[in-house]
Amino acid sequence: MKKIGLMSRRGFIKVAGIACGYSVLGFNVTREAFAATLEFVGLRQQSVYNADSKIYSIRKSQDNPMIKKLYAKDGFLHEGPCGHKSHHLLHTHYNDRSAGVKALKAKGVKLAL
């Protein structure tokens, strides 16, 4: 991203959009919209916490009966949570693919993220 002075183009567009909103809508309307957004976020947070505490009886993974069965002596991952099989199946590994990207860029291929 190309920088314009101290600000990137994306940052400039954000600031310009906010400034246009203030100039077109006025300060009060923009403030009310911002307050309504914060109120919505607060209501959403409260409903998620209420659902978590009242609706869902199992809130910890170690209390889940299916997980307990999975790690039981006769279960699929009977070695335990830190066993070889569980580590192999449940953990990810990083593969550095930057050399391939550099090779494509050297050929002139333009990559969009």
UniProtKB/TrEMBL annotation:
Record-linked Gene3D superfamilies: Iron hydrogenase, small subunit
Residues of the Iron hydrogenase small subunit domain: 35-98
Is Iron tagged as a keyword?
A: yes
Q: Which UniProt keywords apply?
A: Iron, Iron-sulfur, Metal-binding
GO CC field: periplasmic space
SUPFAM superfamilies (alphabetical): Fe-only hydrogenase smaller subunit
Example GO molecular function term?
A: iron-sulfur cluster binding
The protein's matches in InterPro entries, at most eight in alphabetical order, are given as: Fe_hydrogenase_HydB (IPR008953), Fe_hydrogenase_ssu (IPR003149), Fe_hydrogenase_ssu_sf (IPR036991), TAT_signal (IPR006311)
Q: What is this protein called?
A: Ferredoxin hydrogenase small subunit
